[in-house]
Each structure stands twice: as structure tokens, then as C-alpha cells.
Amino acid sequence: MSLPTPPTPDTATPTSGVQPPVALSLAEVRERLARGEGNAMPSDTGRSFWRIMQANLFTLFNLIVGGSFALLLVLGYWQDALFGFFVIANVVIGVAQEFRAKLTLSRLAVLNAPLARVLRRDDTGAESMHEVRVADVVLDDILVLSAGDQVTADAVVLEANGLEVDESLLTGEADALDAAPGRELLSGSSIVGGSGLARVIRGGADSYAARITAEAKQFSLVRSELRTGIARIIRWITIALLPVGAIVVNGQMQAVGGWEVAIATGAWREATVASAASLIAMIPQGLVFMTSVALAVGAVKLARHEVLVQELAAVEGLARVDMLCLDKTGTLTEGRLVLDSVEEVNGHRLDSPLGAPTGWDAALGHFAADRDANATAQALGERFAAVASLELAAAVPFSSARKWSAAEFRDPRAAGSWVLGAPDIVLGGADRRAVGAVLARTSELAASGLRTLVLAHSPEALPETEPAAARLPARLAPAAVLTFREKVRPDAHETLGYFREQGVSIRVISGDDPRTVAAVAREAGVEHVGDGFDARTLPSDETEEGRAELDAIMAREAVFGRVTPEQKKAMVLSLQRLGYTVAMTGDGVNDALALKHADMGIAMGSGAPATRAVARLVLLDGQFSRLPRIVAEGRQVIANVERLAKLFLSKTTYAILFAVVFGLLLWPFPFLPRQLSIVDGLTIGLPALVLALLPNVQKYRPGFLRRAARFCIPSGLIVGGTLISVVAYAYLGGHEPAIVQTTAVITLTLTALWVLVILSRPFTWITGLVVVAAYAGLGVVLAIPLATDFLQLGMPPLELIIVAIAASAIGSAVLDVTHRLIARAAPAGAAGAARAARRG
């Protein structure tokens, strides 16, 4: 998508082609609206509710699990269909998360003005001003603009009376700009001074605001390693279900006498239940559910710290970030100026009594207290107080077109005229030999990134003219040089230091002057030497050669100025091509596209509504120092979900082994679904609720799936081998199915609980209590008649109980030794695994 290039003060549209301000008639307006030339904003998010439902409901995974659930209900085995809860819960959670993201995007708006003022001609030809809905502004309408208005469509200025526009939210340029006739105004910008008329040249979907809105509204989910990894696991399991399912179904039918006998005698019903139990055991139904629980709890914790989580997966996102892109204004800085220094022209400080001109402090106090003072003059108020009794003779308010303001006093404490403004303008008419040193000094200060003004004095009176045509007084001599800087957030230095310690690279990206951006970045603690990189010289990313050149610059430079919204987006994509997981912070509409495409978009609570809507996280109080807390929560979620994944996937591994072995041996499956449910509850379900919420400050390491596989495959094979051995002993001993099933429940529970023991280390009182409760739970279940009747368990003979306990003890010992060996070997390959994950 190509956005219009934002105009700059020195590249305004020529006035020669400007149309005279003739308003449209009401009939012409109706015709344009009928042709679709209105100003309605795009509303499509690219993904309907029905498509969201389809994506989450109609999957092969849900077809198999949901089909098994429905079949058991139809056959009357509702006790064995309890696993259906997780299928329903997973679908509901998936749809709810995506639909919430869709609703958030649908509310995204760059234009917030409820109405627009336009000139229209009635049927008699008389012109009058009308207030209309923003959507009813049409092409060639004449907008009536004054201070406080938002520009509702792209327009060209026709008439201007001191008209000043603030485009900072769109372009990142912090200064208000003079909007002379012929200058193009971007929709979404704000009028901060003066008044004027402007003709609409682009509206609706073609306007600057609409183009940003349209791309920002396109539906997407946060890039989540947890979600991606779990989705990949489920895809693998789903593929395995088809061939394994065929083996299982055939094996269970053969176990009851063959297909013909099973159908003729009705034994196919029991075979169906056994097949369902075997297939459902392979599926980690609770993993998605418990991951969502862990993310939701993390989101609630962050909400208590003034962090709004727009999408649950964003909780873990920042823990994976290794590149943090920062906007300057509103993120690193508070968005206001502070006085940096005041120097007398001969090099002495002005707040020293040495050589200070009479009345300098009173004059500066007046400029600071003036009700029309701009942000720069207001910053003087912290050091200089106005003199209440100072008699004012005349004044000229500040204008971005003039770049100076002036005041004349009759009071002997500050007699004469005082001018505060841009050095090259205020001293432009003076003798260069007299002011050359001052101008050299101001250029030196400006080159360091400071905003520089000069205070000049003249014994002459201010020329008597209208403010719009104001002229400087004669005989101006420089009195002082003043420098201003943006107020860096007090928490910025500490927060950036934290990210440096964590190995996170920093890029500062702003629409302001590169020198100013570089100065602020250094003060905030960004390691950078020299001026920032001027983004106006960046190559386009539309060609392969341009992308390669851009990637090289992004890898080398750390501070960028004069960056447009599309360039911010291109920079984020470039860093992602370089292999980084990118977080982007910002508060203006100019940041929206970059936030949208970053792996993690973070908006300031005081920022533009459109920016907050597209971000994954919103810092409600705007405190930059909240980011380390988010990292900590994300790490806890990743570490705990990784532990849960190992628990659930160990079960999937041994379940697949059961299914294949019993299917090929044509043995009856040794569990009913309800029996597996109780084993899962003791070994996985209830412990998972606790493990998912435990504190965990382990640093993020790439390779979640690799580590999970390295743990769960040997665990599953050992647990599965132990159970198969005990069940084979029981079958060969000629025991009843209920006795075999009970023996299998005891063996599987005791052996699988040792997997929980390994994952709970190092023990705390909480994890120790969970493990003890899980072991005790097995004894409670076997001791309560109501539970054994519901589960259809029978008491095995002492011989089988001893075999089950002994086999479980041996299996647990083998598990422990195996994982100690794996843990000892893991550090040697960790660095290589991290590099491989980074390349991937």
C-alpha cells in the first residue's frame, strides 16, 4: 500500500494551481455522494465472524475428537464422554480471542471529529457554513478550519490567516507547521492556530487517514511461539491419528471376535468405546486450555499494573523480543520541552550577575507567562517568573511563520523591545561581524540536537503594524542564547539499561530532526555516537536490491530521524528479515503501521485511539518502566507452559505407543475413557492448574518444541513400556478385564506421576504438596466404593498389585536416570540450538 508523502514546510504545493474558493451547491454535493465521492472510512477488518468460526471449528482435529464425543453420547456412554468439555472450551477460547481482536480493530479510527464545517451554496446561490457528518464531506468541498479542528479529509489550503497545523501524530514531526495557501493538509492532522479555508482533494478510502486505517485494520494475530508450537504439535498428532486410528479400530474389533462377530453380537459397542479411549488418550486436549488459563492469569496480573493486554498471547510475546524499536516523543520523552541552559552572549551564564543586561529575567518571565505562549516559551516558566507590575506597551505573539515573538516594556526594569526567536531570523538583519560569534554558537548547539533560541534587545519601539505583518525592531543586539531539550522520562535510562542487560538491541525511530533524536537517545541511555541517520536518504524496500540495502543500514544504525509512517513499517519488516523478534512502541498514528507489523506492538495510554486499537499491549499510565514487568510475566508464562507441554506430550507419546502395540497385538485396550480421565486428572489435570501459575523467572531460550520433544519422547516410551509389560503379564495370567483395567490404572498413575516429580523440581512447598496430593488421590479413588463403581474398577489380587508397584518403581527409576543424563548433555548443545532457532 502506498501512502501519500507528507508535505514539508519547504515543499508546499505551488499556489499557481489553487482553485478559487467557490463552494459546491447542495445539488453537486448530492451528486458526489451518489457517485461514492464521500468521506466514509473503511470498516472491513479482513476476517468475518463466520470465517473465524470456520477456522476454529471445522478442523480435522475437532472432527476426530468431536466425532468420538458425539458417538459416545449417541451410544449412551456419557460417562466416557467427559473429554468433550475440552473440545468445547478450546473452540470457545479460540473464537473469543480472535473475535475480541476483530472488535478492537473495528473501533480503530484516525478521524475522531464528530462533525466537519464546510461552505455550501443553497438553491439561490448564497454561500453559508454547514456542520455535516465527516462521512458527508465530499470531493471539492471547502473546509472551514480554525484552532482545535481536526482536518477530516486531505485538502489544499485556499486561504490562511495565521493557519498552523500539527501533524505530529501522523508524521512524528513535533513542531507546528505554517499552512500557507497551496500547502496540502493531511486528514487526521490538527489545526493549532489561526483559521482558513481548504479544498478537499482526497476523501474516503483515498485519504491519508483512511489508507493508514485500512492497513491497520487488517486482521492478524500476535506472533506467538507458544501458539505456533502447540498448533504444530496438534497438526502432527492429527496426521498420526488417521493411520493409528485404523490400527486401533481394527485391533479392538478383532479383540472381541472379529468384525462379523462384533456386528452380529453387538460387541462393536464395547470395541467402539475402547477405540475412542485409545484415540482420545493421544490428544493433549487440556494443553490449549491450560495455556489460555496461564495467559489469562498473566493478563490479569498485568492489568493490576496498568497494562492492558489486547490479546492473551501478547503476554508471552515481549519475553521473546530481542529488538526494541522506540518512538522518541511520548515514549522516551514526556512530550514536553524543558529549559536546558541560558548563556550570555559573551560566554558567561545569564543567571550570574556578571554583565547581565537589565531586565533579562523579567522579559523571559513575561514570555513564559504569556497566555499565547507556545510550548518552548512555556518551558521558561520553571526558572523565570513573570514580574506582575511590569508595564507592557506592545506585543507580537509567536507565529511559526515568523519564528519569533516580541514584547515592548515601558517599565525601566526592562525598558525597550525584547525579541525571542530563531537565531537566524532574529539576527538576520544585524551586522554579521557583530553577531557572527553568536550565530556560530547557536549553530553548534543546534547541531548537538538542542532546540536553540536567541533573546535579543533593542532600545527602539516595536513597529506599529498588524500582528500578521509584524516586523522586527531596529538595532537588535543579542542578549542571551537559550537552549531547550525534550524532557526524557525519568524511568527511561533504567528501563533501557535493563533491556541491554537482557541482550535486547535498541533502535530509536522518530519523525523529528535526526540530531534532536540522537541527543535524546544519548540522554536516555542509548549507546550511540554522532548524529542520527536521516531517513529521507533510506532506500525503498520495493525492490530486492533496495531491501538488501535497507537491511544493511538497519543492522548498522541505531538512531533514525525524519522517518515517515511507511518507513517505520519498512524498518520493522527489515529487522524481522534480519532474524529479530521486534517490539515497537509508539503513541501517534504515524506509529500505527509499524505497531501493526511488529511482533509486539506497545502503545502509550495517552496516545492516539488508532494506535491503541492496533497495539497488542497498552501502557495505560504511559509508564515506560512497565516493560520489564511485562517481560517477567511473559517469561513466567513461557516457562510454565513449556513445563505443561512436557507433561501433556509425555502422555501423548505413551498413548500413541499403547494404541499401536495393543492394536497390532489385537489385545483389548486396558482402559475405559472414564478411567483415563481419572488418571489424567491425577497425573496432569489438577497438577497443571498449579504448575501453570507458579512464579518462574527463567530467561527465555528459543527451541520450545525441541526441548519438549527431548523430554516427552523418552518419558512416554518409558511409561508406555512399563504399562505394556504389566498389562501383558495380567492378560497372560488370564485375569478379568476389570482386574486388568484396575492394574493398568495403578501402574500408569504411579509411573506417570514420576514425570510430574521430575518437572516439579526444584521442589517448593507448593509443588511438594501437589505431588503428595496426586499420589494420595490414587489411594482415595481406590478406597471409595462410589468411585470404583463409577469407574468400573475391581480389586486386583495382591500378586498383581505387587507387580504393578514394582514395575512402576523400576520405571520411575529409569525415568529419573534418563532425564539426569539428558539434562547433563543439554548445556553442551544449548548454544547451537539457540543459533538454529534464531536462523529459523
From TrEMBL:
GO CC entries: plasma membrane
Annotated TM spans: 57-75, 81-99, 233-253, 273-300, 653-672, 678-697, 709-732, 738-759, 766-788, 800-818
Intracellular or extracellular location(s): Cell membrane
UniProt KW Ligase keyword: no
InterPro entries in alphabetical order: ATPase_P-typ_cyto_dom_N (IPR023299), ATPase_P-typ_P_site (IPR018303), ATPase_P-typ_TM_dom_sf (IPR023298), ATPase_P-typ_transduc_dom_A_sf (IPR008250), ATPase_P-type_domA (IPR059000), HAD-like_sf (IPR036412), HAD_sf (IPR023214), P_typ_ATPase (IPR001757)
Matching PANTHER family: CALCIUM-TRANSPORTING ATPASE
Keyword annotations: Hydrolase, Membrane, Translocase, Transmembrane, Transmembrane helix
P-type ATPase A domain location: 114-215
UniProt feature coiled coil, ranges: none
Domain of life of the native organism: Bacteria
One MF annotation (Gene Ontology) recorded for this entry: ATP binding
Principal subcellular localization: membrane
Topology in the lipid bilayer: Multi-pass membrane protein
Name of the molecule in the record: Cation-transporting ATPase E
Its EC number(s): 3.6.3.-
